[in-house]
Amino acid sequence: MKKFYHLIPLCLLLLFGGAAQAQTTVTGTVVDNDTQEPLPGVNVAVKGQTEGDFASSDGKFAVTVSKYPITLVFSFIGFATQEVEVTAAQDLFITLMPASTLMNEVVVAASRTKQRKIESPVTIERIGTKDIINSPQVNYYDMVQGIKGVDVTVSSIGFTSVTTRGFNTSGNTNFLQLVDGMDNQAPGLNFPLGNVIGLTQLDVDNVEILSGASSALYGSRGLNGAMVMTGKDPFQYQGLSVLLNQGVNHVKSKTSNDPVGASPYTDITLRYAKRVGEKLAFKVNFQYTKANDWVASDTTNKNGPGTRYTDPNYNGVNLYGGATSVDITPFLQYAVSQDPSLAPIIDPLLTKQNYVARTGYPEYGYLNNNVRLMKSNAELRYKLTPGVQAIFSGTYGTGSVVYTNDTRYQIRDFKVGQYRAELLSKNWFLRAYTTQENSGKTLLAGPTAQYVNEAWKPSYDPNTGDGWYPQYTGALIQALAMGADLNSAHLAARSYADIGRPALGSAQFNHLKDSVSQRPITEGGTLFLDRSKLYNVAFQYNFSDVVKWAEIIAGVNYRMYDLNSKGTLFPDETKPIHVNEYSAYAQVIKRLIHDRLALTGSVRWDKNSLFANAKPTTRVSSVFELFDQNYLRFSFQNAYSFPSNIQSLQNTLNGYRSYSSGGSSYLLNDTYHFNVYAPYTLESVEKYQQTNDTNDLKKFVVNDIKPQTANSFELGYAAVLGKKVLVDVLGYFATWKDFIGYTNVANTPGTTDPTAFLDRNTYTVYNIAYNGAQTVNTYGYAASVSVDLSKNFIAKVNYYSDHLKNKNESQINNFNTPHYHINMEFGNTGFGKKKTWSFNTTLRYKPGYFYQVAGGLGNGTVPSSTVIDAQVGYKILSARSTVKLGATNLTNRYYSTGIANPTIGGMYYVSLAYNVF
């Protein structure tokens, strides 16, 4: 045998040499048929095989094959798919014809599998790369405001909260946002972090929005809908891309008293991606935003109809510190007991209560309105096999921005990191990720201002008998004695008591503010120390290659919340609280009647360690093709939502003797001792203070909070008419049980004597999450029309309406939406000889509507608004660049998206984009 050993190297050489000879390459270039310009990112696939490539920035591709003939499939959004048969290695020149996307737009989120949008079993909307490029808005989060069924609340330039079906508020914990499969929520607070740590502007491949309940596939947080964002694949989108936006906002307007004045807006976004060989690719992203934020300046009195000039108990929505309110009657009684000659002046005041609020500080000058946001991302992909990729990514965001919840939050120097490891195949994925947050030096506007007021002059010092209220009372009596009318006397008394009050921006004010806001809540300050984390592992398998009679997917998910706020947000003073979630789901799609009918059934099982019982949820749907490109859809979903960590466990100071509270018995009984010191509705306490009749006090029935459920029905119709018009209409109806809302209650820790409620200094107010007893119904309808006008012109209009019935008047339900919305769009993605010109114009109209904020921050009517955004762009083909001139809120008519939120004016900008096509 030894004599044959010398033949082994020769055999190996012949074997690999033959293999090398068998491996040949097909190369080529892909261009736009109309302009003959290269088309980067075109997908070039070998039909029926795993081989393929993506066109580079100059439109070139290379596909390695082992045998001929083959069929190459060229596909790209906005162009007709083309198949080319290749019989030998050669260099191809491919021209793709522009085509309407109305019929062929593909979505994934509706069923976790690829399908045409028009055939989706539920309402879903999509934003693609071309939509973002041609948008007049400066970021894709602002774009969603014009999508059918979507509501937004804008807390600041850098913080937009998205939802659907009417449940609209800052930080909606029942609306899910996924970024590359990762939940985009803050681990502790549970609300989506949105564009604070979302994809950078240049790295968005597409955004899909599911309207309404989606918990059958996505779990508890998807009760009100889901927004699924997908980043760009570095194998497909390569090269350096740069986007520079320079604008100006706070331009003076007759419709607003904006105190800021014209200010620069700067946004810089960079993306670089590169493929290294056949198997490795990476990308890095960076975005930095700097601007002067919009200012919240609602002066509406939360304590009644009066103004700061007519009501001594005035507490403005966006004036902070006025929540400290005391009945000065005891001080008046003491004064007349010391000097009976004052009786003619004081006795008329003793016939009623005499509440007086401390003087509040306006937001501008108090909160820093300098927005600074930075986010960066890096991703590495390696092809273990032609069909399996290993993906490693990390995203980090930091900065300062303002957010609205139970008060306004100055989120300063926050830090959030999200890190992922994933194995991804055509039919399965295994994904693990973690989200880790650091709340930084976040300032709570309301409580901090109250503490600042107490620091420079206490409301009452029992040791000296002096204080702001005794001084106010003395000055009031003196002014009345000198003949002033009651209103003038109150104004004079406030001026006297406020002597020495530190001015906004002064060294004294800043010192007091910092000393309060940088001291933890547990040490008598207002700083919360949220260092919570989220860990998640998920696996999903698509059985399409194994099971042929139906399309089946199944998956499992495990999540752990590591709640760690050092007692400032949760009752976790001694150690972090761990909350575990376990989930499993499956879906079956069966096609019948020559594929004209698609029946889908989904089921999901979830267990949360805070609650004894698991929750199953189901979805069934049907899509029937009535005739060519005309689809009728129906769906039913039994959806649910576990109370979020905030709704269960929050224990956060939000004012003087006032807390935002979860509804678990652990808090209500073990921490607040409601089982000993009964709580009463705050409304009845305030009535009792006026009547002194204990029969007016109404106890609040304490029950441990539990999951809420909804049975939701939807009927819809979608059709493409004449290949140029896409129509989509729908109606929905949902029945809610154990609906979670908020209400204000009060108790007197340490005593059961009801007379203690007569003194605001002896009782504590809690804004509590709880389940309403009655059934609540929501319903609505919507319609949209998109028209392809040829030559890249497109027009869109949509109308939608959401309604709430049988609501619990004692709950704050966060159903903050107008009775209808109207959105319009008209634009062109490329016209002229070389398609170098483009433009787009959008219009959004909302009538006035009632808006409530949990925690007593405010409620009232949001005025109607008509907002026009517009842009015109020009491509410099030789430099692969685009210059765009645009404006958001072109008419500069200031508007707001919610009570206590800022008013938003126009912004006018110039944009320069390199290699963004």
TrEMBL record:
Residues 1-22 form the signal peptide. It is a multi-pass membrane protein. Keywords: Cell outer membrane, Membrane, Receptor, Signal, Transmembrane, Transmembrane beta strand, Transport. GO terms for biological process: siderophore transmembrane transport. It comes from the Bacteria. Residues 117-226 form the TonB-dependent receptor plug domain. It is found in: Cell outer membrane. Its main location: membrane. GO terms for molecular function: siderophore uptake transmembrane transporter activity. PROSITE patterns: TONB_DEPENDENT_REC_3 (PS52016). GO terms for cellular component: cell outer membrane. Belongs to the TonB-dependent receptor family. This is TonB-dependent Receptor Plug Domain. It comes from Chryseolinea serpens.
